[in-house]
Amino acid sequence: MITKSELDKLVEKYETKEFIKDDPIQFIHRFSDKKEAELAGFIASLFAYGNRKMFISKLNELFECADNDILNYVKDGDFSALKGFEYRFAKDFDIIPIFKILNILYNESEGLEELFKYSFEQEDFLQTAVDYFYSRVPKTVGQGFYHMIPNPANGGAMKRMNMYLRWMVRKPPVDLGIWQFMKPKDLLIPLDVHVGRVSRQMGLLKRKSNDFKAVTELTEQLKKFCPEDPVKYDFAMFAFGVELNNKKVGV
Known about the structure:
Number of strands: 0
Low-confidence stretches: none
Number of domains: 1
Number of helices: 12
Oligomer: single chain
Shape: globular
Helix content: 40-55%
Strand content: under 5%
Order of helices and strands: HHHHHHHHHHHH
Radius of gyration: 18 Å
Structural class: mainly alpha
Mean pLDDT: 94
Distance between the termini: 25 Å
């Protein structure tokens, strides 16, 4: 198994501002206003799957549709610019309803922070947050909607939502740390195929499926190295994977 000191060295090497420019987290760093940053981060996290260059390009296109004024765009409620907008599984009839629900949220409350704070205080955190969207979704949406906002009850890893929470809760320089109702110790590792494979190679994860049980297992293992901030090792997983890949191609 990889040691704590080896992991910490990788974190120190990769948890830098240089990480931001090639990661979807770049979108939250474009906004100085707290509400704009949290909203931009949520939207960016929904699209953060598949080829990285492709979804970052698509997100740039989306933010251009909003004139890079994402909070006012959502609160205004005119999403006609998104007609015909799609990315992989998600079509415009999946995407526009999400924006309409966000319009309700930001016009009737303080927004995503209030929603997630309330959800965190409930017994079933992620399910409560997701149910806010599910209770308002029209029947016209397709599977793209449910791919972007998956149901925790299905036992999936909830990778993008856990990644979004990391962005909001952990401290800078990479993450923002603008939400105070949670502590870094409360976060779960954002687990995808890449992180699952790397964590098994490191000897940190035994479960073969990349599901929510694996998320729990890996997070608990990382808490042994850093109880107060286990998810900081997300950077180390990324770095280890990059270094392994570079060795394979002879870089």
